[in-house]
Structures are given as C-alpha cells and as structure tokens.
Amino acid sequence: MKQERWTPHVTVAAVVERDGRFLVVEEETADGLRINQPAGHLEAGETLVEAVMRETLEETAHAFAPEALVGAYMTYIGKPGGGATYLRFTFCGASGAEQPARALDEGIVRALWLTADELRACHATHRTPLVLRSLEDYLAGRRFPLDFVHTHSVGPASAQ
Q: Is the CATH number 3.90.79.10 carried by domain 14-96+103-143?
C-alpha cells in the first residue's frame, strides 16, 4: 500500500505600510473574525512573487508591488496528528490605489489600515502568531532582495 506523502501548505503574505499604517484584512474563519496580512496559498504554476501580488489584490482590492522578502516562517496549526504545517513567505512592498469596485475574496469582511500599536493591541485576534512576528521583523528592518528567492522552471521534457 502506497503511503501518502506529507507536504506543507505553502503560503505568501504581504506587509504593506503607508503613512505609518499597515494594510490588513479582517476575515471570517472557523474561529470567528480574525486579522491577517493579505495572505493566501501558492497556486500551481505561480512564483512566490506572483502569488503575493495576486493574493493582495484579491483580498484588499489594492495592487501590490513587492520590494523585498521579510522572511520565511513555518508554523503548525491544529491538533497533533490532525493539524497542518504552513510554510509562509512574507514580502514587503508598496500598494497601488484601491480599486473600490473590485469584490474582495470570499471570507474577507474588509481591508483596513492599522498602526503597529493597534496591531500589537489586537494580537489575540490575529489569524496566526506569524502576523505579529512578520510585522516586528519588518519594523526591525529585516529585508532580503527579491532575487534571494529563486524559481526554477521545469519544461515538459524534463518534468518527472
């Protein structure tokens, strides 16, 4: 009998600062309303940079131009034997103007701009501890150039 291969969930997130405030989303989860950075899952065929641009636009109606990688984070959520491991790549960058006519992703209640102190004060409502951790890393000046993350394209002839 073939055993199922374990794989982590790969996600991306954006730290977007404008005038001392950070773009976050309030989203409906199984645990109620939670605060998160614009974030989501990497989809087949995407690069990490493409994924964070797409997710930020879908969740906030703001275009996002990544400028640097803040960090790579791993977390485990759930009960032992029944949880999931998430590998999260958090980018920082600039947002474009809001596209108010654009509908937000299902489950996203609203996008809002909060200060670092406001985000610290509501840490109990964060989707995961990575929200505050990546914010603090950003504020501490952690930045890696975008070319730190490499994407190797595999053509059809070399795919296994």
A: yes
